[in-house]
Design a protein that fits this description.
About 35% of the residues are buried. The termini are far apart. The protein is built from no helices and 23 strands. The protein has about 190 residues and is an all-beta fold. The strands form 3 sheets. Strands 2, 4, 6, 8, 10, 11, 13, 14, 16, 17, 19, 20 and 22 form a 13-stranded parallel β-sheet that branches. About 0% of the residues lie in helices and about 50% in strands.
Length: about 190
C-alpha cells in the first residue's frame, strides 16, 4: 500500500529494510520538513511502482525483480549503502530531481535521467552491466568511473572533488551546449 509520514511523526529505521513489493502502484510521502531516513529501501516485484510524492531520504536504495522507483520532480538522498538498479528494473527520474548518492551506483537495469542532477557526495564507484546515461553530474567528494565501460552525460559535468576515470569513456551527448568542469581530474576518453 501507500506510505505517508505525517509532519509530526518520526520514522525509526532500525537495522531492517523498508520493502515495497505490492505488485501495484504505491506512493511514498514524507510531510516532515527534514526528511526521515527510511533505512535500506527495497522496491521489488513485477508491477511494483513506487512513486514519490515528496522528497525522500534513505540509507540505501535497491530496485529489483522488475520493480520501478519513480522520483518525479522530488529529490532523493541516498546514504553510504548506495544505489542499485538490478536487471529488468527501473529507476525513473523523469523530471528535474536531484539524486544525491553518498555510496556506490550499480546499474544493471534502466535509469531514466530526466533533466535533473545526480550528485555524488561520498566515495562512490559506478558499476553494473548497463550503460548509465546521466543528465547533469556533480562530484563533491570522490567518484570512480565504470571500469573499461562507457557512461553518457547529456547535461553538465561539475567536479568539485576527485574523479578517477578507471579506464572509462564518457560520452557527452547533449542536444545543447554542455559545461564541463574537470576540477583537475583527468578523463580517460571523451566522446
Amino acid at each position: 500500500g501507500n506510505v505517508t509520514i505525517a509532519s509530526i511523526a518520526t520514522w525509526t529505521k532500525g537495522t531492517k529494510t523498508t520493502t515495497f513489493d505490492g505488485a501495484a502502484a504505491q506512493s511514498f510521502t514524507d510531510n516532515n520538513a527534514s526528511k526521515q531516513d527510511l533505512g535500506l529501501v527495497i522496491v521489488s516485484g513485477v508491477g511494483t511502482n513506487v512513486s514519490l510524492q515528496t522528497a525522500a531520504s534513505m540509507t540505501g536504495l535497491t530496485v529489483q525483480t522488475n520493480g520501478t522507483f519513480t522520483t518525479g520532480n522530488n529529490n532523493v538522498t541516498v546514504g553510504a549503502s548506495g544505489l542499485t538498479v538490478s536487471a529488468s528494473s527501473t529507476l525513473d527520474a523523469t523530471g528535474t530531481p536531484t539524486i544525491t548518492d553518498a555510496g556506490n551506483w550499480a546499474n544493471s537495469g534502466t535509469f531514466t535521467a530526466g533533466t535533473g542532477t545526480v550528485t555524488f557526495n561520498g566515495t562512490s564507484t559506478i558499476s553494473g552491466s548497463s550503460t548509465t546515461s546521466f543528465n547533469n553530474v556533480s562530484i563533491t567528494n570522490a567518484l570512480t568511473g565504470p571500469s573499461l565501460a562507457n557512461m553518457n552525460v547529456a547535461g553538465d559535468w561539475t567536479n568539485a572533488g576527485t574523479f578517477t576515470h578507471n579506464s572509462s569513456t564518457i560520452t557527452f551527448n547533449g542536444s545543447a551546449a554542455q559545461s564541463v568542469t574537470r576540477g583537475g581530474s583527468a578523463f580517460n576518453e571523451v566522446v
